[in-house]
């Protein structure tokens, strides 16, 4: 793939494939939606550590593995990006809450964010995620309770 992209850098899809390969080589996995790509762009622009994306977490609770949108193994933090398109069914709603509960019981910090929040409140989200990761990036202030 790298050789093909070098020979054809302006071909349709070359930029997207290059970005996917960068994410994969960084151990992140591949974002599945525009919402997830926007989240990664927000994290990158804030200088926060990049999370793993769409990779399984196996808990010791006898239930199936969970595939969160994003997670940081240390400090065991999970961000779920909730788009209406994929989370609007009763079944998805129930499964999401059950998985959140399982992750919290296993010691993970879990938050859910929306596309509107990424678009309208990126500074606040970055501050919340930085706090969740135990970081205090310059220029960002944690929100008041």
List the helices and strands and how they pair.
Layout: H1 2-7, H2 14-25, H3 34-46, E1 52-53, E2 70-72, E3 77-82, H4 84-87, H5 90-105, E4 109-114, H6 115-120, H7 122-132
Parallel strand pairs: 3-4
Antiparallel strand pairs: 1-2, 2-3
How would you briefly describe this protein structure?
The protein has helices at residues 2-7, 14-25, 34-46, 84-87, 90-105, 115-120, 122-132, and strands spanning 52-53, 70-72, 77-82, 109-114.
Description:
- This protein is of the alpha+beta class.
- The chain is built from 7 helices and 4 strands, in the order αααβββααβαα.
- Strands 1-2-3-4 form a 4-stranded mixed β-sheet, sandwiched between helices.
- The mean pLDDT is about 85.
Beta-strand content bin = 5-15%
| Strands, count | 4
Largest sheet: 4 strands, mixed
Across the major sheet, the strand order is: 1-2-3-4
> How much helix is in the residues?
40-55%
- Quote the average pLDDT: 84
Low-confidence runs (pLDDT<50, min 5 residues)?
Answer: none
The count of helical stretches stands at 7
Euclidean distance between termini CA atoms = 48 Å
What value does the Rg take, in angstroms? 16 Å
Category by helix and strand content: alpha+beta
What best-fitting shape do the alpha-carbon axes yield? globular
Order of helix and strand elements from N to C terminus: HHHEEEHHEHH
């Amino acid at each position: 793939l790298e050789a093909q992209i070098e020979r054809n850098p302006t071909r349709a899809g070359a930029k997207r494939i290059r970005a996917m390969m960068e994410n994969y080589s960084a151990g992140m996995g591949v974002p599945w939606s525009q919402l997830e790509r926007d989240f990664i762009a927000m994290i990158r622009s804030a200088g926060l550590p990049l999370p793993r994306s769409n990779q399984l977490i196996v808990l010791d609770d006898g239930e199936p593995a969970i595939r969160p949108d994003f997670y940081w193994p240390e400090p065991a933090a999970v961000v779920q990006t909730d788009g209406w398109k994929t989370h609007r069914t009763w079944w998805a709603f129930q499964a999401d809450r059950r998985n959140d509960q399982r992750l919290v019981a296993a010691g993970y910090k879990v938050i859910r964010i929306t596309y509107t929040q990424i678009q309208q409140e990126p500074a606040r989200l970055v501050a919340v995620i930085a706090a969740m990761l135990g970081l205090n990036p310059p220029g960002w202030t944690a929100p008041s309770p």
